[in-house]
Amino acid sequence: MSTSASQTVYLGTPSLRIAHPATWLTSIRPAVTGAARGIGFALVSSLVKRPQTVIFAGVRDVNKADALNALAKDASNLHVVRLESGSVEDAKAVAKTIEETTGKLDVVIANAGISEGYGDVVDVAPAVFERHFQVNTIGPLVLFQAVASLLAKSSRPQFAAISTAPASLTNLMPMRMTAYTLSKAALNFLTLRINEEHEKDNIASYAISPGWTQTDMGNAGARAFGLEEAPVKLEDSVAGILKIVDGATREKTGGKFWDYTGDELSW
After folding, report:
1. What is the pLDDT of residues 187-220, one digit of tens each?
2. Domain count, the chain
């Protein structure tokens, strides 16, 4: 990221760089879940470089988030908070911390997720589906319920849910990831409901597919399907996600399903 004399911010890798006015970008208050590693950690690492931005990074176990805690030592604008996905108590505690620290919230990037139990529908235990819904669907729901009033105080509130392209109902892919994709399809519908119900608050709610990204989870999935690694570089995914978030408006972005490349996907 760099700024020019005219206060323009440039984000992303060379292929995804985009210029934006610095005013909103450098003073937002985002909350990122699943921030201990992978896409979440990379998002926080990028956001923390923006001046006057206050980031709330949610993790399941604060004491085990070594890389994130190390980053926070040198970044006074980064707050590491406990957030077990689906925990009402944790979500309320995070909302209280945000209210006491900044008074409002501009962006939620609901990134925390799990992907396991690959196989045909007939072979995957119901408990696997339950775990996926608890983390991938109920987690973002509970967090939104806790912070909705804080988002409503923002001039450009956003709820960005990290989904997956294989969760599309109209573009069915031959991947045996049913528990994962089913929970993400439900998450997609949640973003639509939020966008429809919160027009009065001007909340732009939408889903983003980060691509099949080279993270621990992404690479594990790739190996399960006979690939050496996932095809999308982490830095490209993160740059694409932030490009969407930075330019998002309710009219243009809300109620839609986006690929990290900026292409609109079919629900």
Report:
1. 999 999 999 999 999 999 999 999 998 988 888 8
2. 1
Residue 21 has pLDDT above 80, yes or no: no
Residue 151 pLDDT > 70: yes
232: Cβ contacts below 8 Å, ≥ 6 apart: 210, 211, 212, 213, 214, 218, 260
Told to judge if 73 belongs to the known catalytic residues of this protein, a careful annotator would answer no
Orientation of helix 139-151 relative to helix 178-197, angle to 10°: 20
pLDDT higher than 60, residue 50: yes
74: domain CATH number is 3.40.50.720
Residue 158 φ then ψ, to 5°: -140, 145
How many other β-carbons are positioned within 10 Å of the β-carbon of residue 77?
15
Give the whole-angstrom CA distance, residue 171 versus residue 63: 41
Nearest to 82 by CA among 71, 69, 73: 69
Contact by Cβ (8 Å): 133, 186:
yes
| 153 catalytic residue (yes or no) | no
Cα–Cα distance for residue pair 252/267, rounded to 1 Å: 16
Q: Which of 104, 153, 184, 206 is catalytic?
A: 184
Residue-range definition of the domain harbouring residue 124:
2-265
Question: Which token pair is 79?
Answer: 């707050």
DSSP 180-228: HHHHHHHHHHHHHHHHHHTTTTT-EEEEEE--SBSSHHHHHHHHHTT-S
Catalytic residue among 180, 206, 243, 260: 180
Q: Are strands 204-209 and 158-162 parallel, antiparallel or unpaired?
A: parallel
